[in-house]
Amino acid sequence: MTQKVPRHLYKILTREEWEQSARKKEIVRGPNDTTFIHLSTEEQLTDTIERKFKDIDHVVLKIDVSKLPGSGRLEHELYPKNGQKYWHLYHAEIPHEAVDKREEYRASL
Questions:
Q1: How many domains, the chain?
Q2: pLDDT, tens digit, for every residue of 5-40?
């Protein structure tokens, strides 16, 4: 069964990655985004932040999927460590025009 692509997906960046992105046409890729860009649904945000970004300042971007480049391909793929499926963007970058909302967070130390 093919999963319907949500209207919005979320990208979480470190504060440094966001600052680098502000000077470019697209959102920069993090060190784990080499083959594809990792995205989360709204329901997955809390878990993703807890696992990967809890102890660092970060930025959450709300991405309008309809504004992603046509050359990209979204795949809903299994993450074996927790048994959940996540959206991955292949063969494209996220342009700033696709960002509907940005929220910045301080690390919860």
A1: 1
A2: 999 999 999 999 999 999 999 999 999 899 999 999
- Beta strands of the chain (E only): which ranges? 8-14, 37-39, 58-64, 73-79, 84-90, 99-105
pTM above 0.85, yes or no: yes
Q: Is residue 78 part of a domain?
A: yes
Range of the domain at 57: 8-103
By three-state DSSP, how is residue 108 classified?
A: coil
pLDDT digits (tens, 9 = 90+) for 53-91: 989 999 999 999 999 998 889 999 998 888 889 999 999
Asked whether residue 35 is assigned to any structural domain, the reply reads yes
Q: What is the CATH number of the domain that holds 97?
A: 3.20.170.20
